[in-house]
Amino acid sequence: MSRSNTSFGLQTSPKHPVSLKVNGDEHDLLIEPRKTLLAVLRDTIGLTGTKEGCSTGDCGACTVIVDGKAVTSCMVLGVTASGKEITTIEGLASEGELHPIQQAFIDTGGYQCGFCTPGFIMASKALVDENPNRTEEEFRFALGGNICRCTGYTKILEAVLQAAEEIHTNS
Amino acid sequence: MKSFEYFEPTTLAEASRLFAEEHAQLLAGGTDLVIGMKAYTETPQSVISLQKIQGLDTITSDSDGSITIGAMTKVRDVELSDDVQKHHTALAEGASEIGSIQIRNLATIGGNIAHASPAADTVAGLLVADARVDIASADGGRSVPINELFTGPGQTVLKPGEIITQFRLPSPASGSHYIKHKIREVMDLAFIGVASAVNVDNGTITDARIGLAAVAPTPIRATEAEDLLKGKEITSELLEQAGEAAAAATSPISDLRCSAEHRKEMVNVFTRRTLQLAIDRA
After folding, report:
1. I need a labelling partner for B104 at 20 to 30 A (CA). Which of A7, A139, B171, B234 fits?
2. Which fold does the domain A14-91 belong to in CATH?
3. How confident is the model over B95-106, as pLDDT tens digits?
4. CB–CB of A16 and B6 under 8 A?
């Protein structure tokens, strides 16, 4: 089998055709296997709402929803996401209306610098979609994979609880 | 990350053939491998994804409580499985201790075991479940008991081309429990992990298994402590003796996380506690 030269990681390897459905839009791309889903979303497709924090899965800033599950997109190779449905922060608002979770973050002031906010909102959305009827303790524990370095956790939790209650009441 | 060739075989035979090549690495959930590649601690020339091989991600159970868990089953699905929670509680508890929900939605039980970290959170639960590890390879395959899989930190008996396909957990003990000794509630590595599983008949322990993680170069069973418990009436003295025997079986290291002495002492404490709760659940 012929091998590509991997010295210093400068050489590229064959690109793979990848079909991603992102926020309802189909994207047929040719991408290098070493590109993470996060890099594909941000650099190839241009959706920069998803943030890169630690790049090691510890901070949750890059959280997106893949086939209904919240995942840290910095740990996912883009090629492995082919054929899957991806929702990013850009896909939440519909027809000019913010998603209730987005609105709740604004209403409560659940953000400071805003860098962790897309990740928190996507992680919260997956939790609320799965079951909005959780206690504060359960939400606190379930959001443990998201870090806010401004340490604004109280307002973030308030926002999530407010949105969850609204969604639970309307469901 | 260094560049690599990417393969998505649809059969185990093809995956095994590709994996037998030099500098090949298997990709399951990617939560260890992708991070390793970013850090240049992993520099494979070919990466073989297992996700297109059908049938590796299911949990099936029999009426006697025996369970088969596919290697590509997400850790989050192990954690939330009713059957695992009911019959192999220590394993479900261990699965729930890994990373965050986002990571558990990616990470697989096969990856957690094949990575062979002595601190893996699913390993103590699999040890006390007496799990067998089914392995596929180009020339058929084999099955090894989980306590014979590991040979050192990051090292297993797996040969080039061998792929873990599933874990078979026989008829379960009646009660089990896992404790991870840690600082953070989530996103932490275990100082130590302890699982106990017991069968109890009328106040007497008829069978006991104790699995220990992060206290030796490989995960281990505390067999002397187990033997000491079998056939004995449950008393607090007995559990104390078992805790001491389990601690004596360990050879922990001191590292930046905690000292060897602390690990040893906590094995004693958590063996006692996991036994007590396993007995309460039995």
Report:
1. B171
2. Ubiquitin-like (UB roll) (3.10.20)
3. 999 999 999 999
4. yes
